[in-house]
Write a structure and sequence with these properties.
With 380 residues, this protein is of the alpha/beta class. Helices cover 24% and strands 22% of the residues.
């Protein structure tokens, strides 16, 4: 049946209240408008960012009913007007971060923070502030950070679409929509980890493991993982982690252990949890003179405090890394090529796979710390 230009009725996992289990419902996905594409989702992964906003009861994040999901891969089903970079049938990755290729930031190699479409946890499409999602009774359903991939179909702005090689396994390619790309990029592009250097990673969940993988690719010789879960060390070895520290075994002062291990601090420290106390710990064990502390974890309520004397006299740098400073349209294909060349390890991130009807199992696994990435297939 020809669907181009028509609404599509399909299944989606809808969240109706903060923190509640998702419900599989029939939804209506409207046709794409100008500069938009509608894609048929092949599979999607559950990211911790989904969990964070899923728990929020009030704005700026708490909009319900909502379709979450933002790590995905799909096939272009139809195009809105003024779309030239993709065609029907192309395999694409939607990303929460835009790459408009028009603004000063997107045209610069120095930034990936698009100024035409500044990031927000918006419930709407980015150009006109409306939704393409509803239920059969006409109730509006809210979008999630420009993707909403827990649905068989999604409408995404072309600034958030990257065309990829269709030969890449979809359950691996989708990981580069967010978490894995963020971690790898933070090591390779934000910090620019050097060969022979020492790296400390605070929190070795999916993003921390991706940082380790990026550091390994850059040639770091010592990669120290810091985590309360000792089981993380075994999986960490697959991504190059050489040493493991459990904060509970050192009076919650891993920085002191790392300073001794490295004779003065790690060259690069990454905070991947979103705790202010861990940012302080990471900075405390960052090598004076040239060390870099990179923040990837998110906690909107945390305020960081650093003494001006310490900053002035230590010579250290502290920086944030949003999506690993990667530009989706150019960097995702390069990372996928490295995967196909057997340089980049994506396989070991996928620890579980379920069908859409079992999506709440993916939430349970992540909340219990049992999965790194759980891939959700639309047709499993």
């Amino acid at each position: 049946m020809e669907t181009e230009g028509k609404p599509i009725q399909c299944k989606a996992a809808v969240c109706r209240r903060a923190g509640e289990a998702l419900k599989i419902e029939e939804v209506i996905v409207a046709p794409p408008r100008s500069k938009e594409v509608r894609i048929k989702i092949i599979c999607t992964a559950l990211c911790h960012s989904d969990i964070i906003v899923w728990k929020l009861e009030e704005a700026p994040g708490g909009y319900f009913p909502r379709i979450f999901g933002h790590e995905a891969i799909g096939i272009v089903e139809s195009l809105g007007e003024n779309v030239n970079e993709v065609k029907k049938g192309d395999v694409v990755i939607p990303t929460f971060i835009p790459d408009c290729r028009e603004c000063k930031d997107c045209l610069s190699e120095k930034s990936n923070l698009c100024s035409k479409f500044p990031f927000s946890i918006s419930p709407w499409m980015p150009r006109d502030g409306t939704s393409r999602l509803s239920n059969p009774e006409g109730e509006v359903l809210y979008h999630f950070i420009n993707v909403s991939s827990f649905s068989e179909y999604a409408v995404v702005d072309i600034a958030h679409i990257t065309k990829i090689d269709p030969s890449v396994p979809p359950n691996k390619a989708c990981l580069l929509s967010c978490g894995v790309a963020t971690g790898v990029g933070a090591a390779c592009k934000t910090a620019k980890v050097e060969a022979g250097s020492t790296v400390a990673i605070f929190g070795i969940g999916a993003i921390g493991l991706a940082v380790a993988e990026g550091a390994r690719l850059c040639g770091a010789t010592r990669i120290i993982g810091v985590d309360l879960n000792p089981d993380k060390f075994e999986i960490g070895k697959k991504f190059g982690v050489t040493d493991f520290i459990n904060p509970s075994e050192c009076n919650n002062k891993p920085s002191e252990v790392i300073n001794k291990m490295t004779d003065g601090g790690a060259d690069y420290c990454f905070e991947c949890v979103g705790l202010g106390s861990l940012v302080q710990e990471a900075y405390a064990c960052c090598r004076k003179g040239w060390g870099k502390t990179v923040i990837l974890g998110v906690d909107p309520k945390t305020q960081l405090t650093f003494g001006s004397f310490d900053i002035l006299h230590s010579g250290k740098s502290i920086m944030g890394s949003f999506y690993g400073n990667l530009k989706p349209k150019s960097d995702i294909p390069l990372l996928l090529q490295r995967y196909m060349n057997k340089e980049l390890n994506l396989d070991d991130f996928v620890t579980h796979e379920v069908g859409l009807e079992d999506i709440n199992k993916a939430f349970d696994l992540l909340l219990q710390g049992k999965s790194v990435r759980c891939v959700i297939w639309m047709d499993k």
